[in-house]
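User: Second chain of the day. Same drill as before.
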Amino acid sequence: MKPATEGHRRVTVTCSVAGGKCKADIKSLKLIEFDFAALYQTLPDPKQTETSHHRHKQDKHSSGMTSAQLLKTSAEDSVFGAQPPHRMAASVPAVPRSVLGPSPPPPAVWPPLDFALGALACCAACVFTNPLEVVKTRLQLQGELRARGSYQRHYRGVLQALWVVGRTDGLRGLQKGLSVGLMYQGVMNGVRLGSYSYCEALGITSYHGGSLLAGAGAGALGAFIASPAYLVKTHLQAQTVEAIAVGHQHNHLGVSDAFVTIYRRDGLIGLWRGVNGAVPRVMVGSAAQLATFTSAKDWVSHSQWFSPNSWLTALIAAMISGVAVAISMTPFDVISTRLYNQPVDEFRRGRLYHGFSDCMLKVCQAEGLLGLYKGMGPVFLRLAPHTVLSMLFWDLMRQQTVKDTQSQGRS
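Assistant: Same format as last time:
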């Protein structure tokens, strides 16, 4: 049977069961294409021989019919007329699997675009949280390898530290290292979130423990690639006037000067000094952040507290994720900051620590176990809003991208 093409009139077929048969009410509308043969093939009929003969007969005479006669004959005789009432259920399309079964993975965003969305989201969050990053770096370097009470404490808490830095270095001092911090956030989180999204699209995160593994792997890759930017950021945020200085002072003149100085002094490998502390730090933080964010978001969605795709769902999930990241990541953050900021000797080796494990042992021996949790306050105050903002921005931008892609596809 040939489908109705342009030149025929659009019809709407509504069916009602009466007396064991269906009747078709035809209402004329605009132009449409409608393939009755395809519809007929989707309806099972036990009388295959009789149906085949009936269809052959219709095909033979359909070319001489008008569009209204064709639709009437097909609708009443071929489709509905030979069907008993209990056969009508077979013609109803099956319920989508996502309604009764597990939901399918979210629509994949084009990987380069997803990398850009992840970078943009975390850069936007960095602008708001960079002052807390400055304070966190100072608190973690304060009293380095010295017992509690044996050194002068310039910074005694988050609010007091913010006030001291603002009073001494000015408002620009609170945003030290912002430009290279944006560079780090863009590269590291673009790679991290983009790689995790790609693993999510491949279905890796649907397996048991898949979210943790995907988050850790994506974090390690992002941390390694962006390590030079984090090295320079730590140097710049640690340096200040002598009155409130903590840790080693590198005295760089700016971002470009820092990169050039480190390259000339230590070579290309010198730009990746401290990466052995950054990779475990970001692996733990990324695994905790992405796994808890994904799980918390699913839990909140299934609880149906908010409307589907509400930004409040992403906000609650990001808040839960921020707490998990701050608790699990602080010791690794302290070690990473120490390894990045330590001075080097003429053989390009660290003067204070030989590596990740050596740094952890020396900190525990000299400062106690609590030394690994120095700066816990600003770590949480920075990570919680940073996680909330970055995850919220990323999730909202991905949802909008998927909607735009779907709307373009339909048009």
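The chain is about 65% helix and 5% strand.

User: Great, on to the next one.
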